[in-house]
Design goal:
single chain, 205 residues, mainly alpha, two-stranded antiparallel ribbon, 2 strands, elongated
Length: 205
Amino acid sequence: MKPEFLLRLPRTFKWLAGAIMLLIALLWLADRLWPLPLPRDDLARVVLAEDGTPLWRFADANGVWRYPVSNEQVSPYYLEALLTYEDRWFYSHPGVNPLALLRATWQNLSDARVVSGGSTLSMQVARLLDPHSRTLSGKFRQLWRTLQLEWHLSKDQILSLYLNRAPFGGTLQGVAAASWAYLGKSPQNLTRAEAALLAVLPQAP
């Protein structure tokens, strides 16, 4: 005769499978009811010369200077500095880095002040697309949007959103607008020092 706990295993697996299916259904429904607020094509326009130098620059309808740029049009020095400073595990984690959150919580508690945020690049993009208050409910909202980003977009697409929408002070958004405004050059031609400067600037624009 089989032990009692072995007889209960099939029933346990059924309950577990049912709970997983219910969770998936609820997440699918929530994704439909509260869709990810992906941005419209509202980037500012730039007229370039043959060598890539901007001849005329135009802000968008809200007065924001945000020039379109692809991942390939940004210096690898900047991408390296950005990922090293902001989120070195960006291509490995599912949007949220539990270790980074635990480290940030420990540092903040130890210093009795906010010294580290623990937000991944995906979480920062989620906050840029759907601004929220810095409350517990706001944090849950940010986590939900982060999960949606990871479900619907690739890592390179999420990185592209950050490159085009990170705040650089005033009405400057995106690394291309910041590079031209502060350094007078294309983001593709940044030196290591310039890349490091722009990588940390969104934290204190």
